[in-house]
Amino acid sequence: MTAQTAAQAKERLYLFDTTLRDGAQTAGIEFSLEDKISVTALLERLGVDYVEGGYPGANVIDDQFFTECRTRDAVFTAFGMTKRAGRSVGNDPGVQATLNAVSDAACFVGKSSSHQVKVALGISLEENLENLRETVEATVAAGKEALVDCEHFFDGYKSDPDYALSFVRTALDAGARWVVLCDTNGGTMPSEVAAIVGEVSKVVPGDHLGIHAHDDTGQAVANTLAAVAAGVRQIQGTLNGIGERCGNANLITLIPTLALKPGFADRFEIGVSSEQLADLTSISRAFDDLLNRAPARQSPYVGTSAFATKAGIHASALAKDFSTYEHVPPELVGNERNIMVSQQAGKSNLLAALKRHGIELGKDDPRLERLLRTVKEREARGYSYDGADASFFILAHGVLGTLPEFFDVESYRTSVERRHNARGEQVVVTEAVVKIRIGDQLLMSVAEGNGPVNALDLAMRKDLGVFSTRIADLELVDFKVRILDGGTGAVTRVLVESRDGTGERWYTIGVNTNIIDASFEALYESITYKLMKSEAA
């Protein structure tokens, strides 16, 4: 068999991301509208097949999101519940909100466990199936791809297999494209998943079956892989495994396993290219930055310790053969070898990042060595460029000697005053004063804002002389702060998200023991990036 024939023989696996819906149930995580738009961009960059955006009608943010956001390549999916008993599909607000959302597909969850139907819903088993059938038929009639999440499927199958299978058949017969088997409480073992999926596959085609695993026993990835081996062809999961309780199946771990490991890579293909796979570490860390949390060092494939080895017998062996203690080459997933000096792996990552910004350098260019050294020095001080691509772009141009000098901030001052106004009301007034030099021209601007960072942002953009028209559509969208070291002298990292009239969004970073100066650095670089972008247009 030729390589081309072997590639054609591979079965397609489909990746369904539910970070913005199921992942949003993670304790301590609240996605803003801007967060959801930014996560969608990361998912498109990764190359997943489906993006489940949320639950229209459930909250204001999800309603706004489906109004303002679209996916470029992924199937944009709305989530809802099958129609309630005693109502028609047309009179069920939840179903209608999902069907009326601007999306390509609709995923409805229904109870596939006879016990859950009786106890939680309090309706007959037949009525539950009828509600499912009518909901799926209405989805198909609305011109949307229909998906059904079979809630409590594995527990339901173990207690009443006939009803669980009838639920699956009803969904399929009504026109569902995908019927997704859910391990809702995360308690099923991989061997059980494999056996049950094997039985279900006898009555339902595998290319219509999906798996949705939770991680309550730490086996969501294992359960998902077991389900794939047994027949399912759609995989549901989240970025970095976030989700309620202990989380969901981690797509960041699943994707490279499916793409690189024997038994999967030789049998299946996924919609993630080798270039996108090499961006995996950057995407994972950018997502953690967006969540304002430190990446887990020991995360498989993408953690900073994933390919790290201390000096000693392992280091000695690695010096002779890197594959001895590495199950895959780290550069395939965009990570790097962490043993003594990791210059080569670091260079390959930098070259890929530079290429993304249209900067071509040769591997032997001495400026690349200087840039690598600068990046590592700054990361040691608290910078993180995985989630701040615009700042990396500016840093690269600075080191390469190609950074334009648009303006210089000679000084700035912010003040916060808490006082009573003329009506005796207690108010907080924040003001910023900025002196900017453009060539021989010195400009001074004063602005009030909602806090020192907002005031500083407004003052910096208030009068930029000849550049004012070029930043007229620039807007600060989000602002996140993380304390890197404890104590009163803590190092503070600030991440600023900006956008302009073209719809492009970018992130800049600032690090300092002073939160205002860290914010200033990020704001300054955001404006510089906008000016460079407009100059190139």
TrEMBL record:
Example GO molecular function: (R)-citramalate synthase activity
Pathway: Amino-acid biosynthesis; L-isoleucine biosynthesis; 2-oxobutanoate from pyruvate: step 1/3
Keyword set includes Metal-binding: no
EC number(s) recorded for this UniProt protein: 2.3.3.21
Pfam family, one: HCS_D2
SMART domains: LeuA_dimer
Reactions accelerated catalytically: pyruvate + acetyl-CoA + H2O = (3R)-citramalate + CoA + H(+)
Domain Pyruvate carboxyltransferase stretches: 13-278
Annotated InterPro entries: 2-isopropylmalate_synth_dimer (IPR013709), AIPM/Hcit_synth_CS (IPR002034), Aldolase_TIM (IPR013785), Citramal_synthase (IPR005675), LeuA/HCS_post-cat (IPR054691), LeuA_allosteric_dom_sf (IPR036230), PYR_CT (IPR000891)
SUPFAM superfamilies in UniProt: 2-isopropylmalate synthase LeuA, allosteric (dimerisation) domain, Aldolase
GO BP annotation list: isoleucine biosynthetic process; L-leucine biosynthetic process
Superkingdom to which the source organism belongs: Bacteria
Keywords tagged on the record: Amino-acid biosynthesis, Branched-chain amino acid biosynthesis, Isoleucine biosynthesis, Transferase
Family of this protein: Belongs to the alpha-IPM synthase/homocitrate synthase family.
Name of the molecule in the record: Citramalate synthase
Taxonomic source organism: Devosia insulae DS-56
